[in-house]
Amino acid sequence: MNAVLTPKIDIEKIRGEFPILHQQINGKPLVYFDNAATNQKPKRVIKALTDYYQGYNANIHRGIHTLAEKATSAYEDTRVAMWKFINAQHVEEIIFTSGVTESINLVASSYGRAFLKEGDEIIISGLEHHSNIVPWQMIAEEKKAILKVISITPAGEIDLDHYKKLLSDRTKIVAVNHASNSLGTINPVKEIISMAHAVEAFVLIDGAQASAHLPIDVQDLDCDFYCISSHKMYGPTGTGILYGKKKLLEKMPPYMGGGEMIKDVTFAKTTYNDLPYKFEAGTPNIADVVALKEAVLFINELGKENIAAHEHNLLQYATAKLSALPQVKLIGTASNKVSVQSFIIDRIHPFDIGQMLDARGIAVRTGHHCTQPLMDSFGIEGTVRASFAVYNTREEIDQMIEGLKRIIGFLIK
Ligand code: PMP
Predict the structure, then answer these.
(1) Residue 148 C-alpha to ligand 1 middle, in angstroms?
(2) pLDDT tens-digit map of 291-303
(3) Could you give the domains of the chain?
(4) What is the model's pTM?
(5) Which terminus of the chain is less hemmed in, N or C, by CB atoms within 10 Å?
(6) Catalytic: 227?
């Protein structure tokens, strides 16, 4: 486990920022442990959305009237906030997308179509979300490239020896997540990146499960692409970013054609806009991008080290409590994890556990978590997954454990 600080946070104050938490579900106070799917939104993010629609809704970039200028500057302020959030070198390396899924599809499609050739190899890991598998399968099929998969250890860690064996001068792209949504494993991405660069392959990091929990410094990592979804970091759904190194993005052809991504259009020829607009065709998701800045400020003001320390304490507490239940088997026991714990209970289907916990007001996720191949490698259909955010508490974990004890007692005689 990581070296951990004592978190400097005021949990009651934080919980007060999240209106959704203060409600009853099935007659019980809501315990929200589905944060890896999407986490809840603080008041300031919700306020930014209503402020935008009530005060300055206008289309951006092309307008010269006051509202259009205000909306444009708020939209671009979020780009600056995200630029700093991941310590990119240039602000134009931040491209707004609808989230990680679109970011990966953009790279697979634009980079892949332009540069992949028959026999080239793409490496992913056995820990990947479907959105970091399927786009690569699609482009591999189209370009007759080969997809290779790094094996996973029984604890749910990437097997670096196997990765080393897969790397060769045929490897063109390596795409792995920073942290696994199903198991919580934090991958040694810096090492993975430098090993790929040694064979001159590019690396895409899926940061969906990292942005709310781990420090991200794309220059230090030296990754070529990094993908983030706003809704997994206390921001609105429907937006996120693709970070790409400027020299790569400049070489890549546009992903979608339309307004905004052009400099000049005639029926004979179109010239494309500069970065980042080349990749932002059409009217973007202005309101959600604007509100994402408030999510960045929320995280920055709390301090990622405090968030990580609090969540790490919750994870350790939950893991110990779950391990003490003899019927529970933990899935995903890597030594370095974000606050996600998957488990199964012998002879009880995860869906039944999920439904019975919901009856007690506790929201967990059940199923394959969009990682079917990973579940296959454990020989299971799915898990129950509890994932924690900065507003969760030990008392809530106690309620889940109490619920599980009841379910076990009721269903396993
Ligand atoms: N990768 C990982 C690791 C994820 O957890 C998710 C969301 N569950 C995604 C990719 C896809 O993100 P989105 O649905 O926001 O595009």
Answers:
(1) 21
(2) 999 999 999 999 9
(3) 11-39+303-411 (3.90.1150.10), 46-300 (3.40.640.10)
(4) 0.97
(5) C
(6) no
